[in-house]
Every structure is written in C-alpha cells, then in structure tokens.
Amino acid sequence: MGAEWCPDTAAGPPVPTDEFGEVSLVTELEPTADGERRAMLYPSDQPGHEIATRWLAISADALIDLDSVR
Description:
Layout: E1 25-31, E2 37-43, H1 48-51, E3 56-59, H2 66-69
Antiparallel strand pairs: 1-2, 2-3
C-alpha cells in the first residue's frame, strides 16, 4: 500500500499573499450543440498558447451579475 496523506490539523488554509494576487478574467459566450450558451473564462494576461491549459467552461446560466448581489 502507498503512503496515506494526513493533513496537518494545526495548519489552516493558505494565507493570501502577493503570490495569490487578483486575476482578471476574460469571459466569452458561445453557443452549445443543444442551443444553450456556454461561458469560457480565461486569464486576460496569458498568451494564446497558455490559455489552452488555463480555461474554464461553464453554463452561461451559472454566471451572475456581481453588482446585483452586493
């Protein structure tokens, strides 16, 4: 059997630092095969070849207007 992972109970979640700075995302809406819309999200500061491995696709219905919930 392999080694089991045991979390350190004294350690908390990572503390925000400059390493975890704010990231600006681009959102593009595109149609899906079933007639719905899909939102593609990716970092705005990445070159084209980097975007290929750093994107997220979700149903456009899952997006909300942040101003409406503030």
